[in-house]
DNA sequence: CAGTGAGCGAGCTTCCGCTTGACTT
């Protein structure tokens, strides 16, 4: 018999809690939700006042039956799911599915996993808050209605298997609109003036002072005029001012800020970060990684206080509580922090270590003092001109938290600041060494990275810590959005230089606009987005989630009935679904780019059955008329921005490279990039080395021979008796291939020594475990 | 799984938010 059964959401949490409590308690976990709306037939009886049809999904049946068994053996059941809307619903579903008797069921909540917090929670038990549960049901049902009524419209009007939803569709919209901002952006240039002045100190020691003109000039002529004016001008120190300033540490990590910093500092994708954090959490090294709270437990604060004092001294200590600014934050957990702050490093693989150290530094820094700075600004007058040069410098007086942590920014081109400025006096005359006027261009707004998209979504209150990573994956899996790099372009700019009273002009070249791992909308994403924005304007509104959240809050506080709220929404929403099905036609994005110079026929781009396509010539009207030529657009090329030249390029491939071994070699670009085809085999071109438009036959033959060499070494063993069986060398080392299925070879086995029956044994042993493959 | 671009039709796809497996060809 178990006296007390505590049910929490996560098994790692269960393990930790069990350690705190005595033998009287058994702690088990539900692994999140145990029930959900049925997937087939919508799962909601609209006519029966939106009655939800809940089922236990296949993968949760085992957990439920285990919990049922435990409940049968227990005196008191404590439902300890998280203290938020979803957690309350989990507690309620548990009580329903496990048929818990209210007389021996208690609901408890705690925000920190400490013995005190748990014992305190147990003392202050309550019953399930049904208003909060209803708010969750409203949220769940609204999302189901939106997702399952709009998605089928997309299947019929645009393409099968597409999807729409309250969160993902807005995420795509952000990316599409940013792309259009970039396409519409017109870069302008102006001239930035920088002067270098010679400064002599009392001992005759010479140093330099760099100063910037407060004004930029729009044209080269204005810049030139100014430099000419400077040639013989006098430069006088007009003013020197010194101001103290400070920098404060950032709050401890939440899911979203961890994803952003891990992306900026360590280059991890959002899902990589979450997978590594999960490992750290499961091995007890950090607190829970899906959280929107910046709060640290008293225990953590005490520990931070001790460490900072002993490592850095009392001056560095500044214990404080941070408040969340995030819209709709539910704060059921602590911030993400090391479980044991006295460990500044851990055992584990490299990426785990790096992420842990990042978390450790951020947590410690959050409880350290502000950095104290001194900013100096020197104003320099120019005789015969209204303009002024300003030299500014920044000196760190006290490093404070910067001793351990410096937060990065997304800003790619940050100005470097000068440090200490040379000692100068007001009225002092300065001699210039050089004065430059450099042409600078305005830059379009940056494309989103995975992490900066998460930050934007969080800012809008859309999505939750547990869904950021999956949402980012979904919009990529649907083909709406593409994560890729973009090569920079070269651009000339003008530099005017004044030295020794003479101005010279020169041209320089720079690379601009190169981007790494940025999110680009694909054509289908743009078409779906435009369709949704046109017909489902309200759902696609950036404030839609914030608006419905207000209504969920009213339900949670007991001031509103959930079915009334949903019914109100449905009355407006469903007629839109009906009318959209009837009248709407998606825009195929068709554009006429111009005429093909070779044939004079029109060049068109549009969305075809297999994706975006360019076409030369009109569609055939009858059997005799000539058929148009087609070429697929490449990844990252948009229907609305592709130029005639780029479209014509597409028709240059595939092209023949001549004969080799009595067969033609053809170069083209396929799904996996550029390739050479020869005798119906494909040979990939080397990324960054070969260009499909330029490659010649010699190099193609080289590639073919290279791959053949690898193929030759691929086969370790073959068996006469079993032609379908081979031992092969693969990307991950040796493996067994049998009738197109692959099998792992156990570690301690020498692959070259495998006999036929050994292979068969390995195959037999692993075949039981084989699960249906996912796409 | 790299080429295609006719047309028909059955059966399928899809949401968000909790959680962790099982799995790398």
Approximate helicity band:
25-40%
Question: Helical element count?
Answer: 20
Strand content: 25-35%
Low-pLDDT segments, ≥5 res: 768-775
Tell me, what's the shape?
Answer: globular
The largest sheet, given as strand count, sense and whether it forms a barrel, is: 6 strands, antiparallel, barrel
Calculate the terminal CA-CA distance, rounded to whole Å. Answer: 45 Å
Question: How many strands in all?
Answer: 30
Order of strands in the sheet with the most strands? 9-10-13-12-11-14
Structural class: alpha+beta
How big is the Rg?
33 Å
Mean pLDDT: 90
Description:
The chain has 775 residues and is of the alpha+beta class. The protein has 20 helices and 30 strands. The strands form 8 sheets. The protein has a 6-stranded antiparallel beta barrel. Strands 2-1-7-8 form a 4-stranded parallel sheet. A hairpin with a 2-residue loop joins strand 16 and strand 17. Helix 3 (85-97) crosses helix 5, helix 6 crosses helix 13 and helix 9 (270-282) crosses helix 11. The two termini are 45 Å apart. Residues 768-775 have low confidence and may be disordered. The chain binds one DNA strand of 25 nucleotides through strand 3, helix 3, helix 5, strand 24 and strand 25.
């Amino acid at each position: 018999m178990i006296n007390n059964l505590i049910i929490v959401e996560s098994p790692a949490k269960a393990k930790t809690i069990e350690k705190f409590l005595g033998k009287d308690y058994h702690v088990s976990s539900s692994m999140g939700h145990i029930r959900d709306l049925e997937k087939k037939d919508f799962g909601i009886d609209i006519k029966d006042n939106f009655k939800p049809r809940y089922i236990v999904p296949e993968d949760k049946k085992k957990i439920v039956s285990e919990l049922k068994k435990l409940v049968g053996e227990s005196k008191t059941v404590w439902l300890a799911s998280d203290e938020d809307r979803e957690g309350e619903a989990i507690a309620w579903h548990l009580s329903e599915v496990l048929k818990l008797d209210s007389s021996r069921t208690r609901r408890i909540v705690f925000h920190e996993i400490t013995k005190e917090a748990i014992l305190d929670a147990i003392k202050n038990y309550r019953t399930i808050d049904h208003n909060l549960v209803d708010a969750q049901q409203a949220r769940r049902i609204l999302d189901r209605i939106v997702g399952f009524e709009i998605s089928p419209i997309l299947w019929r009007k645009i393409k099968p298997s597409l999807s729409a939803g309250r969160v993902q569709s807005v995420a795509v919209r952000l990316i599409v609109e940013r792309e259009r901002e970039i396409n519409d952006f017109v870069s302008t240039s102006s001239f930035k003036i920088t002067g270098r002045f010679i400064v002599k100190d009392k001992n005759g020691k010479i140093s330099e002072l760099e100063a910037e003109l407060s004004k930029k000039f729009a044209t080269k002529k204005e810049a030139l005029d100014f430099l000419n004016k400077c040639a013989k001008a006098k430069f006088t120190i007009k003013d020197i001012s010194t101001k103290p300033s400070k920098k404060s540490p950032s709050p401890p990590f939440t899911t979203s800020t961890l994803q952003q910093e891990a992306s900026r500092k360590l280059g991890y994708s959002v899902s990589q970060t979450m997978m590594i954090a999960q490992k750290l959490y499961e091995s007890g090294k950090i607190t829970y990684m899906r959280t929107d709270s910046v709060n640290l437990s008293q225990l953590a604060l005490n520990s931070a206080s001790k460490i900072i004092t002993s490592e850095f001294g009392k001056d560095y200590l500044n214990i404080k509580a941070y408040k969340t600014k995030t819209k709709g934050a539910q704060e059921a957990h602590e911030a993400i922090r090391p479980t044991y702050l006295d460990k500044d490093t851990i055992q584990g693989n490299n990426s785990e270590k790096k992420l842990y150290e990042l978390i450790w530094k951020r947590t410690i820094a959050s409880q350290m003092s502000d950095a104290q700075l001194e900013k100096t600004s020197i104003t320099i007058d120019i005789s015969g001109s209204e303009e002024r040069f300003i030299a500014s410098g920044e000196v760190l007086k006290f490093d404070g938290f910067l001793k351990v942590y410096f937060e990065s920014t997304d800003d790619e081109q940050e100005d470097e600041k000068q440090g200490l400025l040379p000692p100068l006096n007001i009225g002092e005359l300065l001699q210039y060494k050089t004065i430059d006027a450099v042409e600078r261009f305005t830059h379009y707004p940056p494309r989103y990275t995975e992490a900066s998209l998460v930050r934007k979504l969080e800012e809008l209150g859309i999505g939750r810590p547990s869904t950021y990573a999956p949402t980012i994956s979904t919009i990529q899996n649907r083909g709406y959005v593409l994560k890729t790099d973009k090569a920079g372009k070269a651009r000339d700019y003008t530099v005017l230089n004044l030295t020794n009273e003479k101005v010279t002009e020169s041209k320089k070249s720079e690379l601009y606009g190169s981007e790494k791992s940025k999110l680009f909308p694909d054509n289908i994403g743009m078409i779906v987005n435009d369709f949704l924005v046109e017909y489902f304007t309200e759902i696609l509104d950036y404030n839609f989630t914030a608006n419905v959240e207000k209504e969920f809050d009213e339900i949670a506080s007991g001031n509103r009935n959930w079915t009334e709220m949903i019914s109100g929404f449905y009355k407006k929403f469903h007629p839109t679904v009906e009318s959209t099905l009837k009248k709407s036609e998606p825009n195929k994005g068709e554009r006429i780019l111009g005429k093909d110079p070779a044939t004079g026929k029109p060049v068109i781009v549009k969305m075809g059955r297999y994706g975006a396509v360019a076409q030369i010539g009109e569609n055939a009207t009858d059997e005799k008329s000539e058929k148009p030529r087609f070429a697929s657009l490449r990844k990252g090329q948009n229907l609305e921005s592709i130029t005639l030249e780029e479209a014509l390029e597409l028709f240059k491939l595939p092209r023949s490279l001549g004969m080799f071994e009595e067969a033609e070699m053809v170069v083209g670009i396929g799904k996996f990039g550029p390739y050479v085809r020869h005798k119906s085999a494909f040979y990939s071109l080397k990324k960054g080395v070969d260009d499909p438009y330029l490659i010649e036959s010699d190099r193609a033959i080289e590639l073919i021979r290279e791959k053949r060499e690898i193929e030759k070494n691929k086969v370790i063993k073959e068996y006469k008796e079993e032609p379908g069986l081979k031992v092969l060398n693969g990307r991950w080392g040796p493996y067994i291939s049998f009738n197109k299925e692959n099998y792992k070879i156990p570690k301690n086995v020498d692959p070259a020594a495998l006999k036929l029956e050994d292979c068969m044994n390995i195959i037999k042993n692993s075949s039981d475990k084989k699960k249906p493959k996912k796409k």
